[in-house]
Protein backbone atom coordinates (compact mmCIF):
# COMPACT_ATOMS: atom_id res chain seq x y z
CA UNK A 1 0.00 0.00 0.00
CA UNK A 2 1.52 3.38 -1.00
CA UNK A 3 2.75 5.57 1.83
CA UNK A 4 0.33 8.40 1.09
CA UNK A 5 -2.62 5.96 1.27
CA UNK A 6 -1.35 4.68 4.61
CA UNK A 7 -1.07 8.19 5.96
CA UNK A 8 -4.58 9.07 4.80
CA UNK A 9 -6.33 6.14 6.52
CA UNK A 10 -7.44 8.06 9.68
CA UNK A 11 -8.72 10.93 7.56
CA UNK A 12 -10.51 8.55 5.20
CA UNK A 13 -12.31 6.88 8.09
CA UNK A 14 -13.28 10.27 9.55
CA UNK A 15 -14.54 11.40 6.15
CA UNK A 16 -16.56 8.20 5.73
CA UNK A 17 -18.31 8.74 9.06
CA UNK A 18 -19.32 12.21 7.94
CA UNK A 19 -20.45 11.25 4.41
CA UNK A 20 -22.69 8.28 5.26
CA UNK A 21 -22.98 4.54 4.70
CA UNK A 22 -22.28 4.56 0.94
CA UNK A 23 -18.98 6.31 1.50
CA UNK A 24 -18.02 3.72 4.13
CA UNK A 25 -18.58 0.90 1.64
CA UNK A 26 -16.67 2.61 -1.17
CA UNK A 27 -13.69 3.52 0.98
CA UNK A 28 -13.47 0.06 2.53
CA UNK A 29 -13.59 -1.57 -0.87
CA UNK A 30 -10.91 0.75 -2.27
CA UNK A 31 -8.60 0.19 0.69
CA UNK A 32 -9.22 -3.58 0.61
CA UNK A 33 -8.33 -3.65 -3.09
CA UNK A 34 -5.15 -1.69 -2.42
CA UNK A 35 -4.23 -4.02 0.45
CA UNK A 36 -4.86 -7.23 -1.47
CA UNK A 37 -3.14 -5.94 -4.61
CA UNK A 38 0.04 -4.78 -2.86
CA UNK A 39 3.23 -6.68 -3.71
CA UNK A 40 4.18 -6.85 -0.02
CA UNK A 41 2.97 -5.61 3.34
CA UNK A 42 5.09 -4.12 6.08
CA UNK A 43 4.03 -4.58 9.71
CA UNK A 44 3.06 -0.92 9.81
CA UNK A 45 0.88 -1.26 6.71
CA UNK A 46 -0.87 -4.33 8.11
CA UNK A 47 -1.49 -2.61 11.45
CA UNK A 48 -2.83 0.52 9.77
CA UNK A 49 -5.16 -1.45 7.51
CA UNK A 50 -6.39 -3.48 10.49
CA UNK A 51 -7.25 -0.28 12.37
CA UNK A 52 -9.09 1.16 9.38
CA UNK A 53 -10.97 -2.06 8.53
CA UNK A 54 -12.08 -2.69 12.11
CA UNK A 55 -13.44 0.84 12.25
CA UNK A 56 -15.18 0.62 8.86
CA UNK A 57 -16.69 -2.89 8.94
CA UNK A 58 -19.39 -2.11 11.53
CA UNK A 59 -20.47 0.90 9.45
CA UNK A 60 -20.97 -1.00 6.15
CA UNK A 61 -24.12 -2.96 5.34
CA UNK A 62 -24.08 -6.61 4.25
CA UNK A 63 -24.31 -5.86 0.53
CA UNK A 64 -21.31 -3.57 0.76
CA UNK A 65 -19.25 -6.14 2.64
CA UNK A 66 -19.74 -9.13 0.36
CA UNK A 67 -17.06 -8.34 -2.23
CA UNK A 68 -14.70 -7.02 0.43
CA UNK A 69 -15.11 -10.21 2.47
CA UNK A 70 -14.43 -12.43 -0.53
CA UNK A 71 -11.21 -10.61 -1.43
CA UNK A 72 -9.85 -10.28 2.08
CA UNK A 73 -10.59 -13.91 2.97
CA UNK A 74 -8.49 -15.13 0.04
CA UNK A 75 -5.50 -12.96 1.04
CA UNK A 76 -3.09 -14.74 3.38
CA UNK A 77 -1.89 -11.47 4.94
CA UNK A 78 -5.29 -10.20 6.01
CA UNK A 79 -5.07 -9.63 9.79
CA UNK A 80 -6.87 -12.34 11.81
CA UNK A 81 -8.78 -9.65 13.69
CA UNK A 82 -10.30 -8.46 10.40
CA UNK A 83 -11.31 -12.02 9.51
CA UNK A 84 -12.88 -12.36 12.96
CA UNK A 85 -14.82 -9.11 12.46
CA UNK A 86 -16.17 -10.34 9.12
CA UNK A 87 -17.17 -13.70 10.59
CA UNK A 88 -18.88 -11.92 13.46
CA UNK A 89 -21.19 -10.18 10.98
CA UNK A 90 -22.78 -13.57 10.30
CA UNK A 91 -25.08 -14.24 7.36
CA UNK A 92 -23.73 -14.19 3.82
CA UNK A 93 -20.63 -12.23 4.83
CA UNK A 94 -19.52 -14.96 7.25
CA UNK A 95 -20.45 -17.63 4.68
CA UNK A 96 -18.24 -16.05 2.03
CA UNK A 97 -15.35 -15.93 4.49
CA UNK A 98 -15.90 -19.59 5.40
CA UNK A 99 -15.84 -20.58 1.72
CA UNK A 100 -12.96 -18.36 0.57
CA UNK A 101 -10.65 -18.20 3.60
CA UNK A 102 -7.16 -19.05 2.30
CA UNK A 103 -6.62 -21.51 5.13
CA UNK A 104 -9.06 -22.83 7.70
CA UNK A 105 -8.16 -25.17 10.53
CA UNK A 106 -9.70 -28.64 10.30
CA UNK A 107 -11.05 -28.21 13.83
CA UNK A 108 -12.90 -25.04 12.79
CA UNK A 109 -14.41 -26.78 9.77
CA UNK A 110 -15.53 -29.69 11.92
CA UNK A 111 -17.24 -27.34 14.39
CA UNK A 112 -19.04 -25.54 11.57
CA UNK A 113 -20.00 -28.83 9.90
CA UNK A 114 -21.46 -30.30 13.06
CA UNK A 115 -23.00 -27.30 14.82
CA UNK A 116 -22.60 -24.13 12.75
CA UNK A 117 -25.40 -22.26 11.03
CA UNK A 118 -26.71 -23.86 7.85
CA UNK A 119 -25.38 -21.03 5.70
CA UNK A 120 -21.90 -21.52 7.19
CA UNK A 121 -22.03 -25.28 6.74
CA UNK A 122 -23.08 -24.84 3.12
CA UNK A 123 -20.13 -22.51 2.59
CA UNK A 124 -17.70 -25.02 4.11
CA UNK A 125 -19.13 -27.69 1.79
CA UNK A 126 -17.83 -25.62 -1.13
CA UNK A 127 -14.21 -25.56 0.09
CA UNK A 128 -11.63 -27.67 -1.76
CA UNK A 129 -9.72 -28.65 1.40
CA UNK A 130 -12.42 -30.28 3.52
CA UNK A 131 -11.61 -33.69 4.89
CA UNK A 132 -13.64 -36.90 4.86
CA UNK A 133 -14.50 -36.26 8.52
CA UNK A 134 -15.95 -32.86 7.67
CA UNK A 135 -17.87 -34.30 4.71
CA UNK A 136 -19.37 -36.98 6.96
CA UNK A 137 -20.45 -34.36 9.50
CA UNK A 138 -22.03 -32.27 6.75
CA UNK A 139 -23.95 -35.27 5.44
CA UNK A 140 -25.22 -35.98 8.96
CA UNK A 141 -27.18 -32.74 8.78
CA UNK A 142 -29.28 -34.18 5.92
CA UNK A 143 -29.74 -30.70 4.45
CA UNK A 144 -30.50 -30.55 0.69
CA UNK A 145 -28.64 -27.27 0.17
CA UNK A 146 -25.52 -28.65 1.86
CA UNK A 147 -25.76 -31.91 -0.12
CA UNK A 148 -25.97 -29.92 -3.35
CA UNK A 149 -22.97 -27.81 -2.36
CA UNK A 150 -20.93 -30.97 -1.80
CA UNK A 151 -22.03 -32.45 -5.12
CA UNK A 152 -21.28 -29.22 -6.98
CA UNK A 153 -17.81 -28.94 -5.40
CA UNK A 154 -15.76 -30.29 -8.30
CA UNK A 155 -12.48 -29.85 -6.38
CA UNK A 156 -13.65 -32.25 -3.69
CA UNK A 157 -13.06 -35.96 -4.16
CA UNK A 158 -15.89 -37.83 -2.49
CA UNK A 159 -15.05 -41.08 -0.73
CA UNK A 160 -17.25 -44.11 -1.36
CA UNK A 161 -19.52 -43.77 1.73
CA UNK A 162 -20.17 -40.09 0.97
CA UNK A 163 -20.84 -40.80 -2.70
CA UNK A 164 -23.24 -43.64 -1.92
CA UNK A 165 -25.11 -41.42 0.54
CA UNK A 166 -25.50 -38.64 -2.03
CA UNK A 167 -26.54 -41.06 -4.77
CA UNK A 168 -29.33 -42.40 -2.56
CA UNK A 169 -30.56 -38.90 -1.72
CA UNK A 170 -30.39 -37.93 -5.39
CA UNK A 171 -33.32 -40.25 -6.12
CA UNK A 172 -35.55 -37.68 -4.43
CA UNK A 173 -33.66 -34.51 -5.39
CA UNK A 174 -33.37 -33.76 -9.10
CA UNK A 175 -31.02 -30.80 -8.54
CA UNK A 176 -28.65 -32.96 -6.50
CA UNK A 177 -28.83 -35.65 -9.20
CA UNK A 178 -27.90 -33.13 -11.89
CA UNK A 179 -24.95 -31.86 -9.84
CA UNK A 180 -23.69 -35.41 -9.35
CA UNK A 181 -24.18 -36.27 -13.02
CA UNK A 182 -22.04 -33.25 -13.95
CA UNK A 183 -19.09 -34.38 -11.82
CA UNK A 184 -15.97 -35.43 -13.68
CA UNK A 185 -14.61 -37.83 -11.05
CA UNK A 186 -17.46 -40.35 -11.19
CA UNK A 187 -17.35 -43.29 -13.57
CA UNK A 188 -20.12 -43.85 -16.09
CA UNK A 189 -21.28 -46.82 -14.03
CA UNK A 190 -21.45 -44.69 -10.87
CA UNK A 191 -23.72 -42.36 -12.83
CA UNK A 192 -26.09 -45.10 -14.01
CA UNK A 193 -28.58 -44.28 -11.24
CA UNK A 194 -28.53 -40.64 -12.39
CA UNK A 195 -29.60 -41.43 -15.96
CA UNK A 196 -32.93 -39.50 -15.87
CA UNK A 197 -31.13 -36.26 -14.95
CA UNK A 198 -27.96 -36.73 -17.04
CA UNK A 199 -27.14 -34.85 -20.22
CA UNK A 200 -27.06 -36.64 -23.59
CA UNK A 201 -23.28 -37.13 -23.59
CA UNK A 202 -23.34 -38.61 -20.09
CA UNK A 203 -26.26 -40.90 -20.98
CA UNK A 204 -24.30 -42.30 -23.90
CA UNK A 205 -21.32 -42.88 -21.62
CA UNK A 206 -23.56 -44.69 -19.12
CA UNK A 207 -24.93 -47.00 -21.81
CA UNK A 208 -21.44 -47.78 -23.08
CA UNK A 209 -20.01 -48.20 -19.61
CA UNK A 210 -22.67 -50.65 -18.47
CA UNK A 211 -22.48 -52.58 -21.76
CA UNK A 212 -18.70 -52.95 -21.35
CA UNK A 213 -18.95 -54.56 -17.92
CA UNK A 214 -17.98 -58.15 -17.48
CA UNK A 215 -20.77 -60.36 -16.18
CA UNK A 216 -23.56 -59.07 -18.42
CA UNK A 217 -24.30 -62.56 -19.63
CA UNK A 218 -27.78 -62.02 -20.99
CA UNK A 219 -29.53 -62.42 -17.65
CA UNK A 220 -31.28 -59.07 -17.02
CA UNK A 221 -31.65 -57.68 -13.53
CA UNK A 222 -35.40 -57.35 -14.21
CA UNK A 223 -37.50 -60.27 -15.49
CA UNK A 224 -39.42 -59.88 -18.76
CA UNK A 225 -43.07 -59.04 -18.24
CA UNK A 226 -45.97 -61.17 -19.37
CA UNK A 227 -47.39 -60.47 -22.82
CA UNK A 228 -50.84 -59.55 -21.49
CA UNK A 229 -49.32 -57.03 -19.07
CA UNK A 230 -47.41 -55.40 -21.92
CA UNK A 231 -50.54 -55.36 -24.07
CA UNK A 232 -52.43 -53.64 -21.24
CA UNK A 233 -49.80 -50.89 -21.10
CA UNK A 234 -50.20 -50.28 -24.83
CA UNK A 235 -54.01 -50.19 -24.51
CA UNK A 236 -53.87 -47.71 -21.62
CA UNK A 237 -51.46 -45.48 -23.54
CA UNK A 238 -53.70 -45.49 -26.63
CA UNK A 239 -56.71 -44.64 -24.48
CA UNK A 240 -54.73 -41.74 -22.96
CA UNK A 241 -55.40 -43.14 -19.47
CA UNK A 242 -52.38 -41.33 -18.07
CA UNK A 243 -52.86 -42.14 -14.39
CA UNK A 244 -53.79 -45.75 -15.01
CA UNK A 245 -50.78 -46.13 -17.31
CA UNK A 246 -48.52 -44.69 -14.62
CA UNK A 247 -49.74 -47.17 -12.00
CA UNK A 248 -49.73 -50.12 -14.40
CA UNK A 249 -46.17 -49.39 -15.49
CA UNK A 250 -44.99 -49.60 -11.88
CA UNK A 251 -46.91 -52.85 -11.36
CA UNK A 252 -45.64 -54.39 -14.59
CA UNK A 253 -42.01 -53.49 -13.99
CA UNK A 254 -42.10 -54.39 -10.31
CA UNK A 255 -40.61 -51.01 -9.38
CA UNK A 256 -41.95 -48.71 -6.71
CA UNK A 257 -44.08 -45.81 -7.88
CA UNK A 258 -41.45 -43.19 -7.00
CA UNK A 259 -38.82 -44.79 -9.24
CA UNK A 260 -41.34 -45.18 -12.06
CA UNK A 261 -42.44 -41.56 -11.75
CA UNK A 262 -38.83 -40.41 -11.83
CA UNK A 263 -38.34 -42.13 -15.18
CA UNK A 264 -41.65 -40.86 -16.52
CA UNK A 265 -40.61 -37.36 -15.46
CA UNK A 266 -37.75 -37.42 -17.97
CA UNK A 267 -39.33 -35.27 -20.68
CA UNK A 268 -36.98 -36.61 -23.34
CA UNK A 269 -38.66 -40.01 -23.07
CA UNK A 270 -35.30 -41.78 -22.98
CA UNK A 271 -35.72 -43.12 -19.45
CA UNK A 272 -39.13 -44.49 -20.39
CA UNK A 273 -37.54 -46.10 -23.45
CA UNK A 274 -35.01 -47.82 -21.16
CA UNK A 275 -37.78 -49.04 -18.87
CA UNK A 276 -39.86 -50.40 -21.76
CA UNK A 277 -36.77 -52.16 -23.11
CA UNK A 278 -36.01 -53.59 -19.68
CA UNK A 279 -39.47 -55.18 -19.31
CA UNK A 280 -39.24 -56.75 -22.76
CA UNK A 281 -41.49 -54.53 -24.88
CA UNK A 282 -40.93 -54.59 -28.63
CA UNK A 283 -40.19 -51.54 -30.74
CA UNK A 284 -43.61 -51.37 -32.44
CA UNK A 285 -45.55 -51.51 -29.17
CA UNK A 286 -43.16 -48.95 -27.70
CA UNK A 287 -43.90 -46.69 -30.69
CA UNK A 288 -47.61 -46.80 -29.85
CA UNK A 289 -46.82 -45.64 -26.32
CA UNK A 290 -44.54 -42.81 -27.46
CA UNK A 291 -47.19 -41.61 -29.95
CA UNK A 292 -49.60 -41.18 -27.06
CA UNK A 293 -47.32 -39.51 -24.55
CA UNK A 294 -47.17 -35.77 -23.82
CA UNK A 295 -46.91 -33.43 -26.83
CA UNK A 296 -43.17 -32.89 -26.38
CA UNK A 297 -42.77 -36.50 -27.52
CA UNK A 298 -45.88 -37.46 -29.47
CA UNK A 299 -45.92 -34.32 -31.63
CA UNK A 300 -42.31 -34.77 -32.74
CA UNK A 301 -41.79 -37.48 -35.36
CA UNK A 302 -37.95 -37.30 -35.06
CA UNK A 303 -38.23 -37.77 -31.28
CA UNK A 304 -40.54 -40.77 -31.64
CA UNK A 305 -38.26 -42.36 -34.25
CA UNK A 306 -35.21 -41.80 -32.03
CA UNK A 307 -36.93 -43.41 -29.04
CA UNK A 308 -38.08 -46.39 -31.10
CA UNK A 309 -34.50 -46.81 -32.34
CA UNK A 310 -33.31 -46.70 -28.74
CA UNK A 311 -35.69 -49.50 -27.76
CA UNK A 312 -34.63 -51.54 -30.79
CA UNK A 313 -30.89 -51.01 -30.40
CA UNK A 314 -30.40 -51.19 -26.62
CA UNK A 315 -29.57 -54.59 -25.19
CA UNK A 316 -32.26 -55.56 -22.69
CA UNK A 317 -29.68 -56.66 -20.15
CA UNK A 318 -28.03 -53.23 -20.30
CA UNK A 319 -31.37 -51.42 -20.02
CA UNK A 320 -32.43 -53.60 -17.11
CA UNK A 321 -29.20 -52.96 -15.21
CA UNK A 322 -29.53 -49.19 -15.60
CA UNK A 323 -33.21 -49.25 -14.60
CA UNK A 324 -32.34 -51.31 -11.54
CA UNK A 325 -29.65 -48.78 -10.61
CA UNK A 326 -32.13 -45.89 -11.01
CA UNK A 327 -34.57 -47.68 -8.74
CA UNK A 328 -31.87 -48.58 -6.21
CA UNK A 329 -32.41 -52.31 -6.63
CA UNK A 330 -28.76 -53.19 -7.08
CA UNK A 331 -25.26 -51.78 -7.22
CA UNK A 332 -23.69 -52.43 -10.62
CA UNK A 333 -20.29 -54.09 -10.08
CA UNK A 334 -17.19 -52.38 -11.42
CA UNK A 335 -14.38 -54.04 -13.36
CA UNK A 336 -11.35 -53.32 -11.20
CA UNK A 337 -9.05 -53.20 -14.21
CA UNK A 338 -10.97 -50.26 -15.64
CA UNK A 339 -12.02 -48.18 -12.67
CA UNK A 340 -10.61 -47.50 -9.24
CA UNK A 341 -12.41 -45.12 -6.86
CA UNK A 342 -10.40 -42.00 -6.12
CA UNK A 343 -10.61 -42.79 -2.42
CA UNK A 344 -10.10 -46.37 -1.36
CA UNK A 345 -12.52 -47.63 1.33
CA UNK A 346 -9.63 -48.16 3.72
CA UNK A 347 -8.06 -44.75 3.51
CA UNK A 348 -8.44 -41.08 2.73
CA UNK A 349 -6.43 -39.21 0.13
CA UNK A 350 -5.35 -35.71 1.16
CA UNK A 351 -7.48 -32.95 -0.31
CA UNK A 352 -5.93 -30.10 -2.29
CA UNK A 353 -4.72 -27.44 0.11
CA UNK A 354 -5.20 -29.67 3.16
CA UNK A 355 -1.64 -29.01 4.26
CA UNK A 356 0.36 -25.82 3.94
CA UNK A 357 3.43 -25.96 6.12
CA UNK A 358 4.90 -22.72 4.79
CA UNK A 359 1.98 -20.50 5.76
CA UNK A 360 0.96 -19.33 9.20
CA UNK A 361 -2.34 -20.45 10.67
CA UNK A 362 -4.98 -18.63 12.65
CA UNK A 363 -4.40 -20.82 15.69
CA UNK A 364 -4.47 -18.83 18.89
CA UNK A 365 -6.50 -16.11 17.22
CA UNK A 366 -9.31 -18.33 15.94
CA UNK A 367 -12.52 -16.34 15.43
CA UNK A 368 -15.70 -17.54 17.04
CA UNK A 369 -17.84 -19.70 14.75
CA UNK A 370 -21.49 -18.70 14.42
CA UNK A 371 -23.56 -21.60 15.81
CA UNK A 372 -26.95 -22.81 14.80
CA UNK A 373 -29.70 -22.57 17.35
CA UNK A 374 -30.49 -25.67 19.35
Write the layout of secondary structure elements.
Layout: H1 3-19, H2 21-37, H3 43-56, H4 62-73, H5 80-88, H6 91-100, H7 106-115, H8 118-125, H9 132-140, H10 144-152, H11 160-170, H12 174-181, H13 200-211, H14 227-238, H15 242-253, H16 257-264, H17 270-278, H18 283-290, H19 295-298, H20 301-313, H21 316-327
Q: How far apart, in Å, are the first and last alpha carbons?
A: 44 Å
- How would you describe the shape? elongated
Low-confidence stretches: 1-7, 335-365
Q: Outline the biggest β-sheet.
A: none
- Rg from Cα: 28 Å
Number of distinct beta strands: 0
Counting DSSP H or I runs of 4 or more residues, the number of helices is 21
Protein architecture, described:
There is one protein chain. The protein is mainly α and 374 residues long. Among the domains are: 3-100, no CATH class; 227-327, no CATH class. Helix content is 60%, strand content 0%. The protein is built from 21 helices and no strands. It has helices at residues 3-19, 21-37, 43-56, 62-73, 80-88, 91-100, 106-115, 118-125, 132-140, 144-152, 160-170, 174-181, 200-211, 227-238, 242-253, 257-264, 270-278, 283-290, 295-298, 301-313, 316-327. Helix 5 (80-88) crosses helix 6, helix 8 (118-125) runs parallel beside helix 10 (144-152) and helix 13 (200-211) packs across helix 21 (316-327). The radius of gyration is 28 Å and the shape is elongated. Residues 1-7 and 335-365 have low confidence and may be disordered.
Amino acid sequence: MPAHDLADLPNLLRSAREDGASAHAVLLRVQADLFVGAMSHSPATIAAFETFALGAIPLVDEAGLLIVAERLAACDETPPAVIAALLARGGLVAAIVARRLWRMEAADMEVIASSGLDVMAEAVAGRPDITATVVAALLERDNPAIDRALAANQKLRLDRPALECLLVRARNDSVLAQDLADRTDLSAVDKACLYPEALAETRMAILKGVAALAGLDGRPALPASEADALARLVALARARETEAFRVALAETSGLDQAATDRMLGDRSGESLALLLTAIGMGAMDAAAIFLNREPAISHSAPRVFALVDQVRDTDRAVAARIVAAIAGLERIPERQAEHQPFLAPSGVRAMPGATSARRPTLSGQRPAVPRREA
